[in-house]
Amino acid sequence: MNKLELFSGCGVFRLGFENAGYKFNKVIFSEINKHAIANYNYNFKKSIYAGSVIDIRSDELPEIDIISFGSPCQDFSIAGNGVPMKAGTLTAGGNSGGLHSDMTVIPVLTPDRLNKRQNGRRFKNEGEAAFTLNCQDKHGVMITKKHGSHQSQIRRLTEIECERLQGLPDDWTKYGLYEKGLKEIAKTRRYEMIGNAVSEPVVREVAKRIKKCLI
């Protein structure tokens, strides 16, 4: 079985599928963020990098069984122009020569960004607010730690705490394989990758249900 990951980020789609029991002969991934690419290459040593999604041509691919993608949401969120994504706008370039007619395509977007502010505050219908992970380190991801009855200390969630909230192993985003070799990834970039990622338990559950349908 071969898998194509578009907008692969730090590889949560692949991680979720593998944790659901999938075995892949080849995984081709597409990403443009150099830190996410380096982190993907570190966590998944045997992968094929395909460049940007606009450069992918299906007639140059092996036969693909599963395509997954978590497309960037900024353009149609309140951080962008707010225009909803049209069906069929996210496709691999070229003809369909390398794609199975019965392949599985799994698009997963982040939660409704039209109702979520990019600093992590989401406003519910009843007017209450819930905080979510974000990819903008300058805003920070904050929690309250109380000391006594009259004092409280506000601190940022650590990178590992954010990884755990996304269902990732500890230090999943800590290292990257760059052109010049292994390098520790800066905290700012780690927060960015984690905030841009989908949640591994969600991907794993979707993958398990797909497997049941294929049996």
Q: Indicate the percent of residues in helices.
A: 10-25%
CATH classification class: Alpha Beta
Cα separation of the termini = 14 Å
Secondary structure category: alpha/beta
**Radius of gyration, in angstroms, nearest whole number:** 19 Å
* Strand percentage: 15-25%
Shape: globular
- Record the strand order, biggest sheet: 3-2-1-4-5
CATH fold category name:
Rossmann fold
CATH architecture: 3-Layer(aba) Sandwich
Helix tally equals: 5
The description of the largest β-sheet is: 5 strands, parallel
Q: Low-confidence parts lasting 5 or more residues at pLDDT below 50?
A: 87-103, 108-130
Mean pLDDT, all residues: 76
Structure description:
The chain has 215 residues and is an alpha/beta fold. It has one domain (2-214): 3-Layer(aba) Sandwich (Rossmann fold). The protein has 5 helices and 11 strands. It has helices at residues 12-19, 34-43, 159-165, 187-196, 200-214; strands at 2-6, 26-29, 48-49, 64-69, 99-107, 121-123, 129-131, 142-147, 151-156, 175-178, 181-184. It has a 5-stranded parallel sheet, with no helix packed on it. Strands 6-7 form a two-stranded antiparallel ribbon. Strands 8-9 form a two-stranded antiparallel sheet. Helix 1 (12-19) links the parallel strand 1 and strand 2. It starts with a strand and ends with a helix.
